[in-house]
Amino acid sequence: MANQYAVIGLGRFGLSIAYKLFESGQEVLGVDVNEERVEESQPYATHSIIADSTDADALKSIGIRNFDTVIVAIGNDIQASILSVLLLKELGVKKVIAKALNKLHGQVLKKVGADWVVFPERDMGIRVAHQLLSPNVLNFIELSKNYSVEEVKIPDRMLYKTLRELDLRARYNLSVIAIRHEDEINISPSPDKKMDDGDVLVVIGENRDLERFANLK
Ligand code: ADP
């Protein structure tokens, strides 16, 4: 069954969340105070309506508490973002996700009850820098402060060698969890699998070990 989501604030961030959910078959209600934004969002949501999320009555009349998840994607108006989260939690919305512009904003959003605070600019900045520092890393997920999963382009020196020969576990303290070649993913590569040009290793390990591996030529 489809989940019901409401996205408040249909700027670039809110709209991309709405669209991705909608495209995946979820029910998405778009909400914005700005009529033009609401009109522009029509193709990217199940319904879109004009409403001010700092107005408790407006939120009630939408039936906001029936939504499984509400995303507050209000941009620069920090006051409106905080007040919206506060009202949504007071009205009993189970899961509220909110975008923060900076650390202090994020702390306040948590205090008023946001279940998940995201920092899109900060996180994207970190990702871009990470990729500049290690061009072989195509993608990564931080599991904790010290551990990550990374997609790493196979270094030239490892081409045509087998996984057994590479012995990444002993040499780099890394585990290979999959090998990707373009869109094909092999989730249980055999130790005899030879590395081809274009292979991407999905490896898990400690950040310093990943960094050492990803910077091999
Ligand atoms: P982005 O950086 O994601 O493009 P914007 O600041 O352009 O962010 O977009 C935020 C959206 O949030 C705007 O469309 C704005 O009209 C909307 N918005 C701001 N305050 C409220 C509110 N109180 N209720 C509903 N929508 C709001």
TrEMBL record:
PROSITE patterns reported for this sequence: RCK_C, RCK_N
GO biological process: potassium ion transport
Domain RCK C-terminal residue range list: 135-217
Gene3D superfamilies: NAD(P)-binding Rossmann-like Domain, Regulator of K+ conductance, C-terminal domain
Entry superkingdom: Bacteria
SUPFAM superfamilies per UniProt: NAD(P)-binding Rossmann-fold domains, TrkA C-terminal domain-like
UniProt domain RCK N-terminal: residue ranges: 2-119
A molecular function GO annotation: monoatomic cation transmembrane transporter activity
PANTHER family: KTR SYSTEM POTASSIUM UPTAKE PROTEIN C, POTASSIUM CHANNEL PROTEIN 2-RELATED-RELATED
Protein name in the entry: TrkA-N domain-containing protein
Species lineage: Bacteria, Bacillati, Bacillota, Bacilli, Bacillales
